[in-house]
Design a protein that fits this description.
384 residues, alpha/beta, 23% strand, binds pyridoxal-5'-phosphate, elongated, 20 strands
Length: 384
Protein backbone atom coordinates (compact mmCIF):
# COMPACT_ATOMS: atom_id res chain seq x y z
CA UNK A 1 0.00 0.00 0.00
CA UNK A 2 2.94 2.36 0.57
CA UNK A 3 5.32 1.09 -2.10
CA UNK A 4 3.98 3.10 -5.04
CA UNK A 5 2.52 6.48 -5.81
CA UNK A 6 -0.62 5.62 -7.78
CA UNK A 7 -3.67 7.71 -6.93
CA UNK A 8 -6.23 5.01 -7.81
CA UNK A 9 -5.47 1.32 -7.74
CA UNK A 10 -6.98 -2.14 -7.35
CA UNK A 11 -5.05 -4.82 -5.46
CA UNK A 12 -5.61 -8.41 -6.55
CA UNK A 13 -4.72 -11.13 -4.07
CA UNK A 14 -3.14 -14.12 -5.77
CA UNK A 15 -3.59 -16.32 -2.68
CA UNK A 16 -7.31 -15.47 -2.41
CA UNK A 17 -7.81 -16.31 -6.09
CA UNK A 18 -5.99 -19.63 -5.62
CA UNK A 19 -8.08 -20.44 -2.57
CA UNK A 20 -11.35 -19.73 -4.42
CA UNK A 21 -10.30 -21.76 -7.46
CA UNK A 22 -9.34 -24.65 -5.14
CA UNK A 23 -12.72 -24.42 -3.37
CA UNK A 24 -14.55 -24.46 -6.71
CA UNK A 25 -12.44 -27.38 -7.96
CA UNK A 26 -13.40 -29.31 -4.82
CA UNK A 27 -17.09 -28.47 -5.25
CA UNK A 28 -16.93 -29.41 -8.95
CA UNK A 29 -15.65 -32.88 -8.20
CA UNK A 30 -15.10 -34.68 -11.50
CA UNK A 31 -16.66 -31.90 -13.58
CA UNK A 32 -14.34 -29.61 -15.56
CA UNK A 33 -14.04 -25.98 -14.48
CA UNK A 34 -14.90 -23.14 -16.88
CA UNK A 35 -14.27 -19.89 -15.00
CA UNK A 36 -15.92 -16.70 -16.20
CA UNK A 37 -13.62 -13.77 -16.99
CA UNK A 38 -16.26 -11.77 -18.87
CA UNK A 39 -16.79 -8.06 -18.11
CA UNK A 40 -13.08 -7.44 -17.58
CA UNK A 41 -13.00 -10.39 -15.15
CA UNK A 42 -15.94 -8.94 -13.18
CA UNK A 43 -14.11 -5.62 -13.08
CA UNK A 44 -10.96 -7.11 -11.58
CA UNK A 45 -8.83 -6.80 -14.73
CA UNK A 46 -8.99 -9.53 -17.35
CA UNK A 47 -5.29 -9.60 -18.20
CA UNK A 48 -4.19 -9.90 -14.58
CA UNK A 49 -6.76 -12.57 -13.68
CA UNK A 50 -6.05 -14.66 -16.79
CA UNK A 51 -2.31 -14.29 -16.11
CA UNK A 52 -2.79 -15.80 -12.64
CA UNK A 53 -5.16 -18.54 -13.85
CA UNK A 54 -2.61 -19.54 -16.50
CA UNK A 55 -0.18 -20.58 -13.78
CA UNK A 56 -2.74 -22.85 -12.05
CA UNK A 57 -3.53 -26.48 -12.83
CA UNK A 58 -7.29 -25.80 -12.92
CA UNK A 59 -9.39 -24.42 -14.61
CA UNK A 60 -9.65 -26.27 -17.93
CA UNK A 61 -11.59 -23.42 -19.51
CA UNK A 62 -12.12 -19.71 -19.19
CA UNK A 63 -15.39 -18.21 -20.41
CA UNK A 64 -15.81 -14.82 -22.08
CA UNK A 65 -18.73 -12.86 -23.51
CA UNK A 66 -17.19 -11.33 -26.63
CA UNK A 67 -14.54 -11.83 -29.30
CA UNK A 68 -12.78 -8.72 -27.99
CA UNK A 69 -12.42 -10.40 -24.60
CA UNK A 70 -11.30 -13.62 -26.28
CA UNK A 71 -8.53 -11.69 -28.00
CA UNK A 72 -7.33 -10.30 -24.66
CA UNK A 73 -7.44 -13.77 -23.12
CA UNK A 74 -5.24 -15.23 -25.87
CA UNK A 75 -2.93 -12.19 -25.79
CA UNK A 76 -2.59 -12.78 -22.04
CA UNK A 77 -1.08 -16.18 -22.74
CA UNK A 78 -4.07 -18.46 -22.15
CA UNK A 79 -3.51 -21.63 -24.21
CA UNK A 80 -6.21 -23.87 -22.74
CA UNK A 81 -9.86 -23.95 -23.73
CA UNK A 82 -11.85 -20.79 -24.32
CA UNK A 83 -15.66 -20.71 -24.36
CA UNK A 84 -17.59 -17.69 -25.60
CA UNK A 85 -21.16 -17.28 -24.36
CA UNK A 86 -22.07 -14.00 -26.10
CA UNK A 87 -23.16 -13.20 -29.66
CA UNK A 88 -20.97 -13.25 -32.78
CA UNK A 89 -20.98 -10.62 -35.51
CA UNK A 90 -20.61 -11.97 -39.05
CA UNK A 91 -17.17 -10.42 -39.48
CA UNK A 92 -15.99 -12.30 -36.37
CA UNK A 93 -16.51 -15.85 -37.65
CA UNK A 94 -12.88 -16.20 -38.76
CA UNK A 95 -11.70 -15.06 -35.34
CA UNK A 96 -13.48 -18.08 -33.88
CA UNK A 97 -11.00 -20.25 -35.78
CA UNK A 98 -7.96 -18.03 -35.34
CA UNK A 99 -8.40 -17.68 -31.57
CA UNK A 100 -9.64 -21.25 -31.11
CA UNK A 101 -12.89 -20.07 -29.52
CA UNK A 102 -15.69 -22.48 -28.62
CA UNK A 103 -18.81 -20.37 -29.17
CA UNK A 104 -22.13 -21.13 -27.52
CA UNK A 105 -24.69 -21.28 -30.32
CA UNK A 106 -28.20 -19.91 -29.83
CA UNK A 107 -29.46 -19.82 -33.44
CA UNK A 108 -29.46 -21.82 -36.70
CA UNK A 109 -28.08 -19.09 -38.93
CA UNK A 110 -24.84 -18.64 -37.00
CA UNK A 111 -24.32 -22.40 -36.77
CA UNK A 112 -24.87 -22.83 -40.50
CA UNK A 113 -22.48 -20.02 -41.40
CA UNK A 114 -19.80 -21.32 -39.04
CA UNK A 115 -20.17 -24.82 -40.52
CA UNK A 116 -19.83 -23.47 -44.05
CA UNK A 117 -16.70 -21.48 -43.11
CA UNK A 118 -15.20 -24.51 -41.36
CA UNK A 119 -15.76 -26.69 -44.44
CA UNK A 120 -14.30 -24.05 -46.75
CA UNK A 121 -11.15 -23.73 -44.61
CA UNK A 122 -10.98 -27.45 -43.84
CA UNK A 123 -11.10 -26.84 -40.08
CA UNK A 124 -13.29 -28.53 -37.48
CA UNK A 125 -15.39 -26.29 -35.25
CA UNK A 126 -16.04 -26.92 -31.55
CA UNK A 127 -19.35 -25.36 -30.61
CA UNK A 128 -21.70 -25.62 -27.66
CA UNK A 129 -25.48 -25.50 -27.98
CA UNK A 130 -27.54 -23.41 -25.58
CA UNK A 131 -30.91 -25.00 -24.81
CA UNK A 132 -34.00 -23.02 -23.76
CA UNK A 133 -35.27 -24.33 -20.44
CA UNK A 134 -37.17 -21.33 -19.10
CA UNK A 135 -34.87 -18.33 -18.76
CA UNK A 136 -36.07 -17.11 -22.17
CA UNK A 137 -32.96 -15.11 -22.87
CA UNK A 138 -30.78 -17.26 -25.13
CA UNK A 139 -31.50 -20.85 -26.04
CA UNK A 140 -32.75 -23.23 -28.69
CA UNK A 141 -36.27 -24.58 -28.28
CA UNK A 142 -37.37 -28.14 -28.99
CA UNK A 143 -38.87 -26.98 -32.31
CA UNK A 144 -35.50 -25.68 -33.49
CA UNK A 145 -33.53 -28.83 -32.67
CA UNK A 146 -34.29 -30.87 -35.84
CA UNK A 147 -32.93 -28.03 -38.00
CA UNK A 148 -29.87 -27.78 -35.75
CA UNK A 149 -29.33 -31.53 -36.08
CA UNK A 150 -29.47 -31.35 -39.85
CA UNK A 151 -26.81 -28.61 -39.89
CA UNK A 152 -24.49 -30.91 -37.93
CA UNK A 153 -25.05 -33.59 -40.58
CA UNK A 154 -24.52 -31.15 -43.44
CA UNK A 155 -20.96 -29.99 -42.64
CA UNK A 156 -17.83 -32.12 -42.08
CA UNK A 157 -16.42 -29.31 -39.93
CA UNK A 158 -19.26 -29.86 -37.44
CA UNK A 159 -18.92 -33.44 -36.23
CA UNK A 160 -20.84 -33.16 -32.96
CA UNK A 161 -21.45 -30.38 -30.43
CA UNK A 162 -18.63 -30.03 -27.95
CA UNK A 163 -21.29 -29.15 -25.38
CA UNK A 164 -24.95 -28.61 -24.61
CA UNK A 165 -25.83 -26.09 -21.93
CA UNK A 166 -28.48 -24.06 -20.22
CA UNK A 167 -28.61 -21.27 -17.63
CA UNK A 168 -30.89 -21.04 -14.59
CA UNK A 169 -33.22 -18.07 -14.11
CA UNK A 170 -33.94 -18.36 -10.42
CA UNK A 171 -31.22 -19.87 -8.27
CA UNK A 172 -29.58 -16.78 -6.82
CA UNK A 173 -32.68 -14.82 -5.81
CA UNK A 174 -34.48 -17.36 -3.70
CA UNK A 175 -34.12 -20.19 -1.23
CA UNK A 176 -36.94 -21.97 -3.07
CA UNK A 177 -35.40 -23.85 -5.96
CA UNK A 178 -38.47 -25.34 -7.63
CA UNK A 179 -38.00 -23.37 -10.83
CA UNK A 180 -34.39 -24.53 -11.13
CA UNK A 181 -35.57 -28.12 -10.68
CA UNK A 182 -38.10 -27.58 -13.46
CA UNK A 183 -35.37 -26.16 -15.72
CA UNK A 184 -33.15 -29.13 -14.96
CA UNK A 185 -35.94 -31.48 -16.07
CA UNK A 186 -36.39 -29.43 -19.24
CA UNK A 187 -32.66 -29.67 -19.90
CA UNK A 188 -32.77 -33.45 -19.61
CA UNK A 189 -35.81 -33.57 -21.90
CA UNK A 190 -34.09 -31.43 -24.57
CA UNK A 191 -30.91 -33.51 -24.36
CA UNK A 192 -33.18 -36.53 -24.95
CA UNK A 193 -34.54 -34.92 -28.11
CA UNK A 194 -30.96 -34.28 -29.29
CA UNK A 195 -30.14 -37.95 -28.64
CA UNK A 196 -33.15 -39.04 -30.74
CA UNK A 197 -31.78 -36.83 -33.51
CA UNK A 198 -28.43 -38.65 -33.10
CA UNK A 199 -26.71 -35.54 -31.77
CA UNK A 200 -24.46 -36.41 -28.85
CA UNK A 201 -22.84 -33.42 -27.11
CA UNK A 202 -19.59 -34.33 -25.36
CA UNK A 203 -20.04 -32.04 -22.35
CA UNK A 204 -23.29 -31.13 -20.62
CA UNK A 205 -23.17 -27.98 -18.49
CA UNK A 206 -25.66 -25.84 -16.58
CA UNK A 207 -24.11 -24.54 -13.35
CA UNK A 208 -23.04 -20.99 -12.54
CA UNK A 209 -21.63 -20.26 -9.06
CA UNK A 210 -24.88 -20.73 -7.14
CA UNK A 211 -25.69 -24.07 -8.76
CA UNK A 212 -22.08 -25.23 -8.44
CA UNK A 213 -22.19 -24.47 -4.71
CA UNK A 214 -25.69 -25.75 -3.95
CA UNK A 215 -26.62 -28.60 -6.30
CA UNK A 216 -24.32 -31.46 -7.31
CA UNK A 217 -26.98 -32.72 -9.73
CA UNK A 218 -26.46 -29.62 -11.91
CA UNK A 219 -22.73 -30.24 -12.39
CA UNK A 220 -22.82 -32.82 -15.23
CA UNK A 221 -19.46 -32.67 -17.09
CA UNK A 222 -18.48 -29.04 -16.55
CA UNK A 223 -19.41 -26.10 -14.29
CA UNK A 224 -19.25 -22.40 -15.23
CA UNK A 225 -18.84 -20.32 -12.06
CA UNK A 226 -17.91 -16.65 -12.16
CA UNK A 227 -18.48 -14.55 -9.08
CA UNK A 228 -17.35 -17.19 -6.57
CA UNK A 229 -13.89 -17.28 -8.15
CA UNK A 230 -13.53 -13.64 -7.13
CA UNK A 231 -14.48 -14.50 -3.56
CA UNK A 232 -18.10 -13.31 -3.56
CA UNK A 233 -21.32 -15.21 -2.94
CA UNK A 234 -23.92 -14.92 -5.70
CA UNK A 235 -26.44 -13.68 -3.11
CA UNK A 236 -27.44 -13.81 0.55
CA UNK A 237 -29.99 -16.47 -0.38
CA UNK A 238 -27.27 -18.67 -1.86
CA UNK A 239 -25.17 -18.24 1.27
CA UNK A 240 -28.19 -19.03 3.50
CA UNK A 241 -29.18 -22.09 1.48
CA UNK A 242 -25.61 -23.35 1.66
CA UNK A 243 -25.27 -22.79 5.40
CA UNK A 244 -28.68 -24.36 6.11
CA UNK A 245 -27.34 -27.52 4.49
CA UNK A 246 -24.41 -27.39 6.92
CA UNK A 247 -21.81 -26.02 4.51
CA UNK A 248 -18.60 -24.57 5.93
CA UNK A 249 -18.12 -20.83 6.33
CA UNK A 250 -14.70 -20.43 4.81
CA UNK A 251 -15.08 -21.29 1.12
CA UNK A 252 -14.21 -17.98 -0.55
CA UNK A 253 -12.14 -14.89 0.10
CA UNK A 254 -12.48 -11.58 -1.79
CA UNK A 255 -9.68 -11.16 -4.33
CA UNK A 256 -10.05 -7.41 -4.83
CA UNK A 257 -9.38 -4.29 -2.76
CA UNK A 258 -9.85 -0.82 -4.21
CA UNK A 259 -7.80 2.06 -2.88
CA UNK A 260 -6.88 5.63 -3.70
CA UNK A 261 -5.00 8.50 -2.11
CA UNK A 262 -6.22 11.73 -0.55
CA UNK A 263 -5.49 14.47 -3.09
CA UNK A 264 -6.43 17.47 -0.94
CA UNK A 265 -7.40 18.24 2.67
CA UNK A 266 -9.32 21.39 3.57
CA UNK A 267 -11.06 23.05 6.51
CA UNK A 268 -14.64 24.25 6.27
CA UNK A 269 -16.55 26.64 8.54
CA UNK A 270 -20.06 25.74 9.78
CA UNK A 271 -22.90 26.13 7.25
CA UNK A 272 -20.77 25.45 4.14
CA UNK A 273 -22.29 23.46 1.29
CA UNK A 274 -20.34 20.58 -0.21
CA UNK A 275 -20.50 19.63 -3.89
CA UNK A 276 -23.04 19.76 -6.72
CA UNK A 277 -26.63 20.40 -5.79
CA UNK A 278 -25.61 21.68 -2.33
CA UNK A 279 -26.92 18.41 -0.90
CA UNK A 280 -24.66 18.47 2.15
CA UNK A 281 -24.09 21.34 4.54
CA UNK A 282 -21.63 21.40 7.43
CA UNK A 283 -23.08 21.97 10.89
CA UNK A 284 -19.75 22.63 12.57
CA UNK A 285 -16.12 23.40 11.79
CA UNK A 286 -15.20 20.44 9.53
CA UNK A 287 -12.26 18.86 7.80
CA UNK A 288 -12.79 17.42 4.33
CA UNK A 289 -10.63 15.19 2.15
CA UNK A 290 -10.97 15.24 -1.64
CA UNK A 291 -10.50 11.84 -3.36
CA UNK A 292 -9.60 11.30 -7.04
CA UNK A 293 -12.55 8.95 -7.60
CA UNK A 294 -15.92 9.55 -9.22
CA UNK A 295 -18.71 7.71 -10.99
CA UNK A 296 -16.49 7.45 -14.06
CA UNK A 297 -14.25 5.15 -12.02
CA UNK A 298 -17.19 2.97 -10.96
CA UNK A 299 -18.04 4.61 -7.64
CA UNK A 300 -21.77 4.86 -8.14
CA UNK A 301 -23.42 8.27 -7.85
CA UNK A 302 -26.16 6.73 -5.72
CA UNK A 303 -23.52 6.40 -2.97
CA UNK A 304 -23.64 10.21 -2.53
CA UNK A 305 -24.10 11.15 1.14
CA UNK A 306 -24.58 7.47 2.04
CA UNK A 307 -21.37 5.48 1.87
CA UNK A 308 -18.16 5.45 3.89
CA UNK A 309 -14.53 4.94 2.95
CA UNK A 310 -11.74 3.83 5.31
CA UNK A 311 -8.81 5.99 6.32
CA UNK A 312 -6.35 4.74 8.92
CA UNK A 313 -8.80 1.97 9.84
CA UNK A 314 -11.65 4.41 10.51
CA UNK A 315 -14.85 5.20 8.62
CA UNK A 316 -14.99 8.53 6.81
CA UNK A 317 -18.48 9.45 5.55
CA UNK A 318 -19.05 10.56 1.95
CA UNK A 319 -20.21 14.18 1.91
CA UNK A 320 -22.16 15.65 -0.98
CA UNK A 321 -22.65 14.18 -4.43
CA UNK A 322 -20.19 11.85 -6.11
CA UNK A 323 -18.80 13.82 -9.07
CA UNK A 324 -17.53 12.44 -12.38
CA UNK A 325 -13.88 12.22 -11.25
CA UNK A 326 -13.88 13.39 -7.63
CA UNK A 327 -15.62 12.86 -4.33
CA UNK A 328 -15.41 14.36 -0.85
CA UNK A 329 -15.31 12.61 2.51
CA UNK A 330 -15.28 14.03 6.02
CA UNK A 331 -12.14 13.54 8.12
CA UNK A 332 -12.96 15.85 11.04
CA UNK A 333 -12.67 12.87 13.40
CA UNK A 334 -9.59 11.45 11.67
CA UNK A 335 -7.12 14.29 12.39
CA UNK A 336 -4.16 12.17 11.28
CA UNK A 337 -5.50 12.08 7.68
CA UNK A 338 -3.08 13.94 5.40
CA UNK A 339 -2.43 14.62 1.73
CA UNK A 340 -1.48 11.41 -0.14
CA UNK A 341 -2.60 9.07 2.65
CA UNK A 342 -4.16 5.83 1.35
CA UNK A 343 -7.93 5.42 1.37
CA UNK A 344 -9.83 2.13 1.10
CA UNK A 345 -12.97 2.24 -1.04
CA UNK A 346 -13.47 -1.55 -1.04
CA UNK A 347 -11.62 -3.92 1.25
CA UNK A 348 -9.99 -4.12 4.64
CA UNK A 349 -8.07 -1.44 6.54
CA UNK A 350 -6.93 -2.69 9.95
CA UNK A 351 -10.03 -4.04 11.72
CA UNK A 352 -12.57 -2.27 9.47
CA UNK A 353 -13.93 -3.62 6.18
CA UNK A 354 -16.07 -2.09 3.45
CA UNK A 355 -17.31 -5.07 1.46
CA UNK A 356 -18.57 -5.12 -2.11
CA UNK A 357 -21.87 -6.39 -0.70
CA UNK A 358 -22.08 -3.41 1.67
CA UNK A 359 -21.53 -0.97 -1.20
CA UNK A 360 -24.13 -2.84 -3.26
CA UNK A 361 -26.68 -2.50 -0.45
CA UNK A 362 -25.96 1.21 -0.08
CA UNK A 363 -26.23 1.68 -3.85
CA UNK A 364 -29.41 -0.38 -4.16
CA UNK A 365 -27.87 -2.97 -6.46
CA UNK A 366 -26.03 -6.31 -6.38
CA UNK A 367 -22.37 -7.15 -5.85
CA UNK A 368 -22.08 -8.22 -9.53
CA UNK A 369 -22.88 -4.70 -10.73
CA UNK A 370 -20.53 -2.96 -8.30
CA UNK A 371 -17.69 -5.22 -9.51
CA UNK A 372 -18.47 -5.21 -13.23
CA UNK A 373 -18.57 -1.42 -13.36
CA UNK A 374 -15.17 -0.86 -11.76
CA UNK A 375 -13.35 1.34 -14.23
CA UNK A 376 -10.24 0.71 -16.25
CA UNK A 377 -8.82 3.88 -14.66
CA UNK A 378 -7.54 2.06 -11.57
CA UNK A 379 -4.08 0.51 -11.83
CA UNK A 380 -4.25 -3.26 -11.20
CA UNK A 381 -1.57 -4.52 -8.82
CA UNK A 382 -1.16 -8.22 -8.08
CA UNK A 383 -0.24 -8.88 -4.44
CA UNK A 384 0.68 -12.15 -2.70
C1 LIG B 1 -22.04 -15.01 -16.20
C2 LIG B 1 -22.47 -16.41 -16.46
C3 LIG B 1 -22.06 -17.45 -15.62
C4 LIG B 1 -21.35 -17.20 -14.30
O1 LIG B 1 -22.30 -16.74 -13.36
P1 LIG B 1 -21.92 -16.47 -11.83
O2 LIG B 1 -23.23 -16.23 -11.16
O3 LIG B 1 -21.03 -15.28 -11.81
O4 LIG B 1 -21.23 -17.68 -11.33
C5 LIG B 1 -22.35 -18.75 -16.01
N1 LIG B 1 -23.05 -19.00 -17.17
C6 LIG B 1 -23.49 -18.01 -17.97
C7 LIG B 1 -24.24 -18.35 -19.19
C8 LIG B 1 -23.23 -16.69 -17.64
O5 LIG B 1 -23.69 -15.72 -18.43
Amino acid sequence: MKQHSHLNWIELSRSALKKNVDSLAKLAGNAQLALSVKSNAYGHGLTEIVGMLSTMERPEYVTVHSVDEAELVRAGGWTKKLMMIGPLAEHQYEAVIELDIEPVIVDEITLDQLGRLGDRLGRTMSVHLKLETGTNRQGLTDEELPAIASIFKKYDSLQYPEGASTHFANIEDTTNHEYAEYQLKEFTRLCGILAELEIKPRLLHTASSAATILFDNTHFDLVRPGIAMYGHWPSKETYLSYRLEGGENNLFEPVLSWRCRITQVKNLAPDCFVGYGCTYRTTAQSRLAVLPIGYYDGYDRSLSNIAYVLIDGKRAPVRGRICMNLMMVEVTDIPEAQLHDPVTLIGRDQSEVIGVEQLATWAGTINYEILARLGASARRLVTH
